[in-house]
Write a structure and sequence with these properties.
alpha/beta, eight-stranded parallel β-sheet, 18 helices
Length: about 950
């Protein structure tokens, strides 16, 4: 483990979404990119053909070969040849863009939705009527049923089904893993029901199926009994969803995700020809297939849906279809229960007929799948259920940007890592550092590092740069770029200095990829659909800070076992306590499993469930549900309490953290005197006999903290994630099975604390602290000679009387400069220099990307990219005169801005990106420049013992 940390192997390296933008790539660009990846020890790349170059007000670029054509396949195979030569593992997106589909998808295989028309008639006569064709799309329509039922004034009700379109799966419910449990009840999303809406209550036994009495032209002949009747012609047509963000002419309809036949058609038409072209690379160099996240709205039908529904739910759905037209069948609760069953079936079909089928095809070729199959867009899916069929569990996280500024809009890894833990999968990947708004100017230590660390604590163990755009040389610099993402590729100004940042992530991944996650709590997130779990800090079980948890779906819940008083998932992880959701709704199957687990000794935190929102099992099932709930919880329920059942115990009205502490279980990790969920975070793994904790400071301040770990009898070691240095902690205390280690963490710094070597449980540390403090012994002030690159418009040499932001300089060549500039200064030590002291150079503020190289007295000291930009210079510093060289690199942003603002002047850059537009694509008044350069103060710091 230590060897891998200090010299990480390639298989634990970072990966990327290698964007083939509008298909505009060539062999020179392919070789350039793959060799660049290899030079930074990438594990591999995911070829992702897509458009997006001209979204949000950006400019067009030329169109390359269309996805899947012979010309495109030639480039694809060349990329695989080069990857094989370089030892890189490859994957590819099985379409251009996302929302699986394309120009080859005919209406037969397009995503479907229910449509209906209604005809009102008076009875007591023979009726011959032509039923109106429901609204259709793409000239495709098929009938499901013709249903007839009486409608009269006595049936009228003001209690309508709330949010009916959402409950029927016509739409997504949001893009940031929203809580959708409101669909189980009848309070609308905005918490009110419109008083002016009315409907009719229809008794199920009064609904007649007259499908056989309608001919192929839609004519219905029927001897109608007395009364007023409604005739529903219910059928299905295509949705209007289209492929998003595709290259060239790869436009078209979205595939039916609930149909195996549709996926068969797509596979045989699109994927098989690519495999044929790729030849021996399939299953060797080419190992994984991707589809992006669900962003295609709703779909709610497929050709054999009635049969599938009955298979999964155990009853026929046709008599409930008047609900589609807004009628209430029997009563509101019955109608909502049917709708819940309906959505749950949608989720089952998406999981089993699309993602599971995708995996079956892949495994035939010794390949795996890694679709973003679990949100965060809340379509008709059960996220963790879908993940169960993935070989690499893929999620996404965002760096801060105007489009997604808040943590709940940016972080989604907890669901993916939980799926990996409970299903027993090793790699938890993520589309990483996505943004909409910034271009090139993300600050590494401020924007990207804390986001990466945050998601490492949520279970991430392989990041995929989003995006690494392939840009042919003739596209210039910075070249063509996707409208979103965080831009990283050989075209960025700081690529030559990027290894330190990339190595940091590689080093962390080399440890966490090999760990077994430690958590005390397993949280069950229900069986409702849509069901997409949000960020870790949503913490529905109430475990934080101090403990950690996983989330499970119904599939794994029904497979839980007990071992030595702990709950065990198929993935092998053991938990002390199981927590059920607080909306007091369970399925009968889950309730039966709860009772069984309690009999076997489980500790469960749960309020008594009040209902199952399902018609499965009928009245008998309902009676069984309530009888079993009474058996477990009893009839008299207080707000807070506990009850023994079998060998186990059920408790309610208490958080998981409160419960564990009450049972004498100490926190797994805690910072003494701090109870914030967000200032710090951690994740705990075991690797062999070692306990491994990744700890992160998620603030912009230097913090001195005492961290208490639930470990004893093992020597704590401090593994520096930036430098790779490993040292034993000299300051620590052991008490009652816990070890307290004082840490000092710089802004957004992280450390891995490893408990490895056995020691006496009564041994205490020999020091008071593990980190030094620093005092400033000299400010390096005065003038600096700065050399810019004249090829990019800067002066060859200029004197700065003091350190300034380049954008404030009157010289436009400096103001709009992008690239590297070397600061030169000869200074004389003005403090008492001692050979027995350790000295550090501190730059403090480096803008805009925040990256610098340091050389002192001719000796290279390396790259700095994290606050406070400090590096040891004890051996190089000398009494008297010293020569300092600091190379600072800023991003492309200011030079692109200058060229855009002054199109009549010499143009240094070439790109499709337009900076005057905001993140929505709307023009701004001006382009604000990014502060750039070495801002300091530059100081010499002495380590204080």
């Amino acid at each position: 483990m230590k060897e891998n940390f200090q010299n990480p192997p390639a298989e634990s390296g970072v990966n990327c979404w290698w964007w083939w933008l509008n298909g505009n790539v060539n062999k020179a660009a392919i070789t350039k990119d793959l060799e660049a990846m290899k030079s930074k020890n990438f594990q591999g790349a995911m070829i992702f053909d897509a458009g997006g170059h001209n979204q949000r007000g950006n400019k067009d670029i030329r169109t390359g070969p269309l996805y899947g054509t012979d010309e495109w396949n030639e480039l694809f195979v060349f990329a695989l040849d080069e990857a094989e030569r370089l030892g890189l593992q490859m994957g590819f997106n099985i379409q251009s863009g996302w929302n699986l589909g394309g120009p080859i998808v005919i209406p037969q295989y397009t995503a479907k939705q229910i449509t209906c028309s209604e005809t009102k008639i008076s009875g007591n006569k023979k009726v011959t009527v032509k039923l109106e064709l429901p609204k259709i799309r793409k000239d495709f329509y098929k009938d499901i049923a013709v249903l007839v039922f009486p409608v009269n004034a006595e049936q009228k009700t003001s209690e309508v089904i709330s949010d009916l379109d959402l409950k029927l799966g016509y739409h997504e419910l949001g893009g940031s893993a929203p809580d959708t449990r409101f669909l189980l009840g009848n309070i609308s999303r905005n918490k009110t029901n419109s008083p002016d809406k009315t409907s009719y209550i229809v008794k199920k036994e009064d609904i007649l199926n007259l499908t056989s009495k309608m001919d192929s032209e839609g004519n219905l002949d029927w001897e109608a009994p007395e009364g007023e009747w409604s005739i529903l012609r219910v059928g299905y047509t295509c949705t209007d969803a289209h492929v998003s963000t595709s290259s060239g002419n790869w436009q078209g309809s979205v595939l039916d995700y609930m149909s195996k036949e549709a996926f068969d058609f797509y596979w045989n038409t699109v994927v098989e020809p690519i495999f044929k072209a790729a030849g021996h690379h399939v299953g060797t160099t080419l190992k994984y297939m991707e589809t992006d996240s669900w962003e295609c709205g709703g779909m709610n039908w497929t050709g054999n849906f009635p049969e599938e529904f009955e298979k999964y739910r155990g009853y026929d759905l046709l008599s409930y279809l008047p609900i589609v037209a807004g009628y209430v069948v029997d009563d509101i609760n019955t109608s909502n229960a049917f709708l819940s069953d309906f959505r749950k079936t949608l989720g089952y079909l998406v999981a089993n007929n699309h993602y599971a089928h995708f995996a079956e095809y892949a495994h035939q070729y010794n390949m795996g799948i890694q679709p973003e199959s679990a949100g965060p867009h809340a379509g008709p899916i059960d996220g963790i259920k879908n993940y169960g069929f993935s070989d690499i569990v893929m999620s996404e996280f965002w760096s801060p940007s105007p489009h997604r500024p808040l943590p709940e809009n940016r972080f989604f890894l907890k669901q993916a890592s939980s799926a990996a833990h409970i299903y027993g999968k090793k790699i938890v990947g993520a589309e990483s550092f996505t943004t909409i708004g910034p271009h090139w100017n993300d600050e590494l230590w401020y924007d990207q590092k804390p986001a990466f660390d945050h998601e490492i604590c949520a279970g991430l163990n392989r990041m995929y740069f989003h995006t690494f755009t392939c840009s042919p040389p003739e596209m210039g610099l910075p070249g063509q770029e996707y409208f979103a993402g965080t831009h990283i590729n050989p075209q960025v100004t700081w690529w030559d200095q990027s290894a330190s940042f990339i190595d940091y992530m590689h080093r962390v991944q080399s440890v966490v990829q090999n760990g077994k996650f430690v958590a005390d709590v397993l949280y069950y997130y229900g069986d409702h659909v849509p069901n997409v779990f949000p960020l870790k800090h949503s913490d529905p079980a109430g475990v934080m800070p101090g403990f950690d948890y996983d989330v499970t779906d119904e599939t794994i819940f029904l497979q839980l076992k007990m071992k030595d008083g702990k709950i065990v998932v198929p993935g092998g992880i053991e938990y002390r306590v199981l927590v059920l959701p607080d909306h007091k709704v369970l399925s009968l199957d889950v309730l039966k499993k709860v009772e069984k687990l309690l009999r076997q000794g489980a500790h469960i935190i749960a309020h008594k469930p009040e209902k199952m929102v399902s018609l499965t099992g009928g009245e008998k099932g309902q009676k069984q549900f309530h009888k079993l709930a009474d058996k477990i919880w009893g009839n008299e329920i207080s707000e807070k309490g506990e009850k023994r059942h079998g060998k186990g115990q059920v408790t309610w009205g208490i958080t998981a953290k409160e419960y564990l502490l009450a049972k004498g279980v100490p926190t797994d990790f805690v910072i003494e005197g701090n109870d914030s969920k967000t200032d710090y975070d951690y994740i705990h793994y075991t690797i062999g006999e070692s306990d491994v904790y990744f700890v992160t400071n998620q603030t912009t301040d230097r913090k001195k903290i005492n961290c208490r770990f639930r470990v004893a009898g093992l020597q704590p070691e401090l593994w520096d994630t930036v430098t790779g240095e490993i040292r034993e902690a000299q300051a620590f205390t052991q008490n009652e099975g816990l070890t307290t280690v004082p840490l000092t963490l710089e802004p957004y710094e992280s450390v891995i604390v490893v408990f490895n070597k056995p020691m006496d449980k009564n041994r205490q540390g020999t020091a008071q602290r593990n980190y030094a403090d620093y005092k400033t012994v000299q400010n390096i002030t005065g003038a600096w000679q700065v050399n810019f690159d004249t090829l990019w418009g800067g002066p060859a040499s200029v004197t700065f009387p003091e350190l300034i932001d380049w954008t404030t300089h009157p010289n436009d060549g400096i103001r709009f400069y992008s690239g590297s500039a070397v600061y030169n200064k000869t200074f004389t030590i003005d403090f008492e220099f001692r050979q027995d002291k350790e000295y550090f150079l501190q730059l403090e503020n480096v803008k805009d990307i925040g990256i610098a190289e340091v050389k002192i007295n001719g000796k290279e000291k390396g790259v700095l990219w994290t606050k406070p930009f400090r590096i040891e210079i004890s051996r190089e510093l000398q009494p008297g005169e010293n020569k300092l060289e600091i190379k600072v690199i800023n991003s492309w942003y200011n030079r692109v801005a200058g060229d855009e603002m002054f199109p009549d002047k010499k143009q240094y850059t070439k790109t499709n990106i337009v900076l005057i537009n905001d993140f929505r694509g709307r023009p701004k008044q001006e382009i604000p420049l990014e502060p750039s350069g070495l801002l300091g103060p530059v100081t010499i710091e002495e380590m204080v013992d």
